[in-house]
Structures are given as structure tokens and as C-alpha cells.
Amino acid sequence: MKKLMMSVLALSLISCSKTETKTEEKSGGLSDVISTAKNYNNLSKSADDVSKNIETLKQLTPLTNEELKQVLPETLMGMKRVELSVGDAAIMNLVSAEAKYKDENNKRIELQIMDGAGETGSAMVSILMMGLNVEKEKITETGFEKSAEINGMKAIVSEDKNGENIDSKIQMIAKKRYLLTLTGNGVSYEQLKSALGEINMSQLK
Questions:
Q1: Does residue 53 fall inside a structural domain?
Q2: Does residue 161 form part of some domain?
Q3: Partner of 199 at 20 to 30 A CA spacing, among 80, 92, 178, 183?
Q4: How many helices (H) and strands (E) are present in the chain, helices listed first?
Q5: Nearest partner of 188 among 142, 120, 128, judged by Cα
Q6: How far apart are CA 112 and CA 130, in angstroms?
Q7: Contacts for 139 with CB less than 8 Å, ≥ 6 apart
Q8: What burial class does residue 192 get, using C-beta atoms within 10 Å of its C-beta: 0-12 exposed, 13-18 middle, 19+ buried?
């Protein structure tokens, strides 16, 4: 539950950020002006979309715990599911589920899903959608964090490699309703991206 809320907070902060590339320091050039204007335009349009999406999601009934469990596969990228939990966010009137996967080489993947239907979920997910419309890129010596589009859905993706260790993450809104977070340890971003294809998205209404 704590990790889920941290994911929500991280995505919320995106709505306040500008496009950033650490490999080159920019100082008020034309590209900065164009990039900033583009982000403001995106946010303005997103605000309208957020309002509409909130009203739509408010009217929907959240999935049951059993329905959410059907979305979480027993294996992911050949890794066995070693933990499954649902309903941890019920105290906040949120419906969520989490599954953890592990293989014999100690590679791990964690999959979290939060349903945006209902009073609380609708506001949270819709605002996060607005943040995803802000183009973002950060490149470091060990990895990156950037905006991306995966299967027609906007996402924030990241990868960090330190020696033999590599971590990756994908955060996205599926079907304008579900906050989907995939975290990989010992797994590259490209591998994590391919794992998305093994998730039973058809179970998400």
C-alpha cells in the first residue's frame, strides 16, 4: 500500500515539471520557450479532460477483489508469482491489487493496479492523467527517466544500471481508468515493457 501511494505521489509531481535533459544544460533558448509553451498547452487541454474523466469514472462501479485478481497472471516473464494481495487500499475507498514475481536468479517484478472508478479513485487517476501529458526526459550516467507511449497509452518509464544491477519502472494509466505500475529488479526497461503483453488487460473493463 505504501509503495502504491508513493507511485501516485511521484506521478502527481510530473504535472508540475518541465521537459528536462541532463546531458545538455539549456539557458532560456528558443527550444525552452517552445517546450514550455507546449507543456502549458497540454496541461490546459488536460485540465478539461480531467474534469470530464472524473465525472465519467464517478459513475462507474470499481472492480471487485476477485475481478482484479484475474488481471494478475500466475507467471510473468517466466517468473513465478510469490505473493498476491488485494484490498490493502480499501480504507481509503480505493480498490487495488499487487503481485510479486521472482525467479531462481533473484530477478523480481512487482505489479500494482489501482482502479480509478468511484469518488476517490476518479479524482486521483484523472489528475495523474494530466501529469502524463507533460513531456519529460532526464538522462544520467546510469540511466534515464522519460515520457513514453506504450500500446497507445502514455507512460513514464525509467531504468537505472549500476554495475551488474539494473532496475526499471513503468507507470501508466490504462483505459483512462487504471493506474498500472510495473517495477523490475534485475530487469531492463525493454524486458519490463515486454512483460506488459503478458498482463490480461482484457479483464480491465
A1: yes
A2: yes
A3: 92
A4: 5, 9
A5: 142
A6: 20
A7: 21, 22, 23, 146
A8: buried
CA torsion 136-141-142-148 (nearest 10°) is 20
Task: Give the type of residue at 125.
Answer: V
Give whole-number Cα distances, 124 to 120, 174, 185, 192, in Å. Answer: 6, 14, 27, 25
**What is the model's pTM?**
0.77
For residue 20, being part of any structural domain is answered with: no
The count of domains in the chain is 1
> Whose grid coordinates read 480498490?
95
**Residue type at position 187:** V
Residue 156 C-alpha cell reads as: 513514464
For residue 143, the enclosing domain spans 2-10+27-203
Cβ atoms of 156 and 137 within 8 Å: the answer is no
Task: Encode the chain (205 residues) as per-residue pLDDT tens digits.
Answer: 445 544 444 444 444 444 344 434 444 454 444 444 445 455 556 677 778 888 999 999 999 889 988 899 999 999 999 999 987 766 677 889 999 999 999 999 999 999 999 988 898 888 888 888 888 899 999 999 999 999 888 899 999 999 889 999 999 999 889 999 999 999 999 999 999 989 988 888 7
Q: Is residue 18 part of a domain?
A: no
Which residue in 54, 53, 62, 67 sits closest to 94, CA to CA? 62
